[in-house]
Amino acid sequence: MKYKAVLFDLLTGLLDSWSVWNRVAGGEVAGRRWRAAYLELTYGCGAYRPYAVLVAEAARAIGLPETVAASLRDEWDSIAPWDEAPGILRELKKTHRLGVVTNCSERLGRAAASGLGVPFDVIVTSERAGFYKPDPAPYRLALSELNLKPSEVCSSPARDSISSARPALGWIPTGITGSDYSGRRGLRRRCMSRARSLL
To answer: Which CATH superfamily does the domain covering 5-16+79-197 fall into?
Structure first.
């Protein structure tokens, strides 16, 4: 077996969190603009700042009321897995260790992961790592807790976060990357296709 573990992006690769952002924002256009503003903040801030603060700042930046941040938190448990994700994870779990690396708070990250119904060996949130992706710190923590070398882990992340971290990790480029978060369904297909290839 080439890989001993698989690390997933959580909130786009395994879960359809976008639909909840859109619903809370009042529609897909506003939701995508809000999410894009949030991603810009996380990718630019480096060291961890509270997730809820960034979500609220992103809302304000695009003209949404900051109260949508609290609404997102209230709706968090309604984030659902992509239909095929739990079954694929259950099959992978028979032969691989599984983990997620997510730009999220500890409480919300673990709550979201629990919705998949599959126990993960490692759940690394930006809050616990102290940095947001694409900083290498979350991936270093995941590798440390798995006690594996980068070459022993297949990554299935969203966007290019792990690609950016690879030079600092010595990571062999085996994962999935998506060029644009707006292609969330395409990313889902690529993520699940890569996961199936390991079965």
So the answer is: HAD superfamily/HAD-like (3.40.50.1000)
